[in-house]
Design a protein that fits this description.
Layout (H helix, E strand, L loop, with lengths): L9 E3 L2 H10 L6 E3 L8 H11 L4 E4 L13 H14 L3 E5 L2 E4 L2 E7 L5 H18 L4 E3 L14 H12 L3 E4 H11 L3 H7 L5 E7 L2 E4 L7 E4 L8 H14 L4 E4 L7 H28 L1
Parallel strand pairs: 1-2, 1-12, 2-3, 3-4, 4-7, 7-8, 8-9, 9-12
Antiparallel strand pairs: 5-6, 10-11
Helix pairs in contact: 1-2, 4-5, 6-7, 7-8, 8-9
This protein binds fe (ii) ion (FE2).
The site of fe (ii) ion has 5 residues, from strand 9.
Amino acid sequence: MRRRDPRSAGVGLRLPHLAEVAATRPLAAWFEVHPENFLANPHAFELLQDIARDCPISVHTVGVSIGSAGGIDRTHLRRVRKLVDSLDPFLLSGHLAWSTHAGEYLNDLLPLPYDEETLQLVIRHVDEVQQGLGRAYLVENPSSYVGFASSTMTEVEFLCELVHRSGCRLLCDVSNILLSGHNMGFDAYAYIDALPAHAIGEVHLGGFAAEDDEGNSGGTLLVDTHSTTIAEPVWHLYAHAVRRFGLQPTLIEWDNELPALATILEEAVMADHMAAYALERRRQHASAC
Ligand SMILES: [Fe+2]
């Protein structure tokens, strides 16, 4: 029987499922919400506040943009702070990316060059966001499709240095690692092995799609669509991550082509089984040594 427990896998709560969740209270371990969906929708926010009274909530920002050279939008940060204070989430997170420029909000999470200048910018912004929101902010590894010739570090080296210098913690998106490894030509297992295990505070799992790579004839690009079930290779990589990081709050991300909520909840049950299996294997391995 599933319980409301952040140690079990949670699911994304998106607006099309909000009224159903408010009315039926399905037994999800916890829900993750994007605050930007609720800032201009007082009725939806009322329903969310009601749900938050008996279910743990994680807040995942999509518009805070810690990689923007123009700085953090403090007005947006204050609005998110009000929502966060009201919900008192057990986790708060956002992406290593940029999505705003000169007051314009772009609909994408755009990549950063991994160099010293970017590192110092992101360290300043993570600190500003943590101060502004009044709590720890987990930084999520992005899904990558292109890189910068000017980068002087790999993505995982950049994240390790960010943790080392800022003291922040990370959200490890296992699907992003798998698809970025395919797109950018790195070993996803080695990436997980290189992450600082003590700093991992949450895990994401999401569906992706294979598309023709226009820049590479005959090649495929894996795209982070969040529109389908978790692929088999991601489950294997997740088991590896659980063995390395221990049991962490794990989220099933499903944002597009939303199925019935029950389908997403089934994926969360699968994540619980996979995590339990991985931990048992780790325990057996340790006792055999
Ligand atoms: Fe994610």
